[in-house]
Design brief:
The complex is a heterodimer of chains A (270) and B (306).
Chain A lengths: L7 H12 L5 H7 L4 H4 L8 H23 L1 H7 L1 H14 L14 H6 L6 H19 L22 E5 L3 E8 L1 H9 L8 E11 L2 E7 L1 H11 L4 H12 L5 H13 L3 E6 L1
Helix pairs in contact in A: 4-5, 4-6, 5-6, 5-8, 8-9, 10-11
Chain B lengths: L10 E4 L5 H7 L5 E5 L1 H4 L4 H12 L2 E4 L13 H13 L5 E4 L20 H18 L4 E3 L14 H12 L2 E5 H11 L3 H7 L5 E7 L2 E2 L4 E2 L8 H14 L3 E5 L7 H9 L41
Parallel strand pairs in B: 1-2, 1-10, 2-3, 3-4, 4-5, 5-6, 6-7, 7-10
Antiparallel strand pairs in B: 8-9
The chains are: A alpha+beta (270), B alpha/beta (306).
């Protein structure tokens, strides 16, 4: 019987359940509480199930397309079939709850880590890198400090100075060399899941996104600065970690390179 | 002129990422641009920078896909606040979205899902349009959707529903003549009847686009040139509305900007000359910042490779 009195809210719940069902539209229809023929009218060429099937088919294509854009290297490494399967499962657990597609993939790295995929630890790191690039791409813009700003801090104020990072900066500590794998992807070379601790600053400059490899020492120091520690406290953090102070030459090089890359936007002196 | 005194902006083109560099670099002689609201609301990156630069040179209209004006979830006022803020930042001439719903129970399907057309859904949608218009402090402009299903609960035609919605909520209309054609094929109605039923004084804007005909049905893909039948519908609409802001959408398999612009300019054959809002569009003396690479979403730094 046609559901001529089906109210708007249950109709929308019904249609969403059919459209987003992970199997094909026929299984979706079987799982629905109301028969498709009772809700959808036929056209001169298509049966109701075929008509709602258009929306069902397009839903998963959109999810796959959106996550392929955000996780292009992961998609390439896995191959089309495996990636689509992964997305199909992922959106069941983490469906979009935002008005923008930009948030759809936020839980993708952790989902990969908890999956049974081969190479999941490598793929997790690669996804973490790609997510950081997406987040940095969209972050708020901030004017970087002039290259000589840090050098101009009065010597007696250096220890108490805080260097404020730009919003478009993410620091990553990875178990795999995901940066090299991503570079290989960009250059259309085979990606290798090489297990190797690596540290990375992903940042934006002049609206371009960059990946800056760091040494472990540089990462620890920069991480402390990004956590809003003063330069003096960051040096103490470094000392606690490595049981030595950072070399003067290293500090000089780091601040020079990071300033040139535009990683900082302000200096606060207590 | 429509009853809201929204100006005739002339012939515009949808602002798309693949054209950013061309637009900033060559400042094409386009009357206006339409930007997809959600692409610019949550970013401080290059898309937002480009939109604000373009807005310095051209009139901007914001066009949304996630308002879910027909949805039964509560309206998302966080979304509306961001939309209003963006509209002010780029001096949007008006704000439009679709007669549709996009998800319920907190989910977003990211599709323009069709409405049943009956008294309950009309009452529900009209109330939400009024709330949104009040919040945005400008009449919402509502676009007719393309659709692939018809509901057993519908008791009126889409054109009667849309006309009633416009009257009851005092909203503007964005008449997508390609959507009318697509739906007329899929649901076997006369598209001319639809166009003739629209309250002309509420039509603020017209959309044009291409589609894919699968024989048994048409999908609204925005990936091709506008077909002759749709141009005829456009001409019929213009005969009723007079010159009206017109925009070409091209969202997939997007060709280079001159090709898209040339397709849009075909609309001028249906318009009287020199009638658009004066002083808008085209090149101005101010220099735009040199374009940065845009062929890929991310550019490589000198230290990109280990």
């Amino acid at each position: 019987m046609p559901q001529s009195d089906l109210a708007l809210a249950p109709l929308q719940e019904w249609m969403q359940a059919v459209v987003t069902h992970p199997s094909d539209v026929y299984e979706a229809a079987d799982a629905a509480e109301i028969a498709v023929d009772d809700v959808i009218l036929p056209s001169r060429t298509l049966q109701p199930i075929q008509r709602v099937g258009i929306y069902h088919g397009m839903y998963m294509l959109r999810m796959i397309e959106a996550l392929t854009v955000d996780y292009a290297a992961v998609a390439q490494f896995l191959g089309e079939h495996a990636f689509e399967h992964l997305v199909r499962d992922y959106v069941q657990q983490f469906p979009s709850r935002s008005y923008t597609f930009n948030r759809l993939g936020d839980s993708f790295p952790e989902y990969i880590a908890s999956s049974s995929l081969k190479r999941r630890n490598f793929l997790h790191d690669l996804a973490v890198l790609e997510l950081a690039m997406t987040l940095v791409f969209d972050e708020a813009e901030a004017e970087p400090l002039p290259a000589d700003a840090i050098a101009s801090i009065a010597p007696e104020q250096v220890a108490d100075a805080r260097i404020i990072p730009i919003p478009a900066l993410r620091l990553l500590a990875l178990d795999y060399d995901a940066n090299e794998a991503f570079q290989a992807f960009r250059e259309e070379r085979p990606m290798k899941a090489r297990r190797q601790k690596s540290w990375l600053a992903v940042h934006r400059r002049d609206y371009g996104v960059y990946r800056m490899p760091l040494t472990r020492e540089a990462f620890v120091f920069l991480e402390a600065l990004v956590a809003r520690q003063t330069i003096g406290s960051a040096i103490e953090t470094f000392h606690r970690r490595f049981r030595r102070f950072p070399a003067q030459s290293d500090l000089f090089t780091w601040f020079r390179d990071w300033s040139a890359a535009g990683l900082f936007t302000a200096i606060e002196v207590e | 002129m429509n009853r809201f005194n929204f100006p005739d902006l002339g012939i515009g083109v949808g602002l798309r990422t693949v054209h950013f560099s061309h637009i900033l670099g060559s400042q094409p002689d386009v009357d206006w641009f339409e930007a997809l609201s959600e692409n610019y609301m949550d970013t401080g990156g290059r898309p937002r920078y480009v939109l604000e630069k373009v807005a310095e040179q051209y009139p901007i209209v914001l066009h949304g896909v996630s308002l879910s004006i027909g949805g039964t979830d509560p309206l998302d006022f966080d979304y509306l606040r961001k939309l209003k803020s963006l509209a002010r930042a780029v001096n949007a001439r008006w704000i439009s979205d679709h007669l549709c719903w996009t998800g319920v129970s907190g989910r977003n399907v990211h599709d323009l899902l069709p409405m049943p057309y009956n008294a309950e859904s009309l009452r529900h949608t009209a109330e939400r349009v009024r709330i949104v218009s009040d919040f945005l402090e400008t009449p919402l402009v509502v676009e007719n959707p393309s659709s692939y299903v018809e509901f057993a609960t519908s008791t009126m035609t889409e054109w009667d529903f849309l006309a009633s919605l416009a009257e009851e909520s005092d909203c503007g209309l964005l008449l997508d003549v390609n959507n009318i054609y697509v739906s007329s094929f899929n649901h076997s109605f006369d598209p001319n009847v639809y166009v003739d039923a629209m309250p002309a004084d509420r039509v603020v804007q017209v959309h044009l686009a291409g589609h894919q005909n699968h024989g048994t049905h048409i999908i609204d893909t925005h990936n091709d040139f506008v077909i002759d039948e749709v141009w005829k519908l456009y001409g019929r609409a213009c005969a009723r509305t007079g010159d009206v802001s017109t925009l070409l959408e091209w969202d997939a398999d997007i060709p280079d900007f001159p090709t898209v612009h040339a397709e849009a300019r075909k609309a001028s054959a249906f318009r009287s000359a020199g009638s658009r809002e004066s002083g808008v569009g085209g090149r101005k003396a101010a220099e735009l910042r040199p374009p940065t690479p845009d062929s890929r979403p991310y550019s490589e730094g000198p230290y990109a490779a280990v």
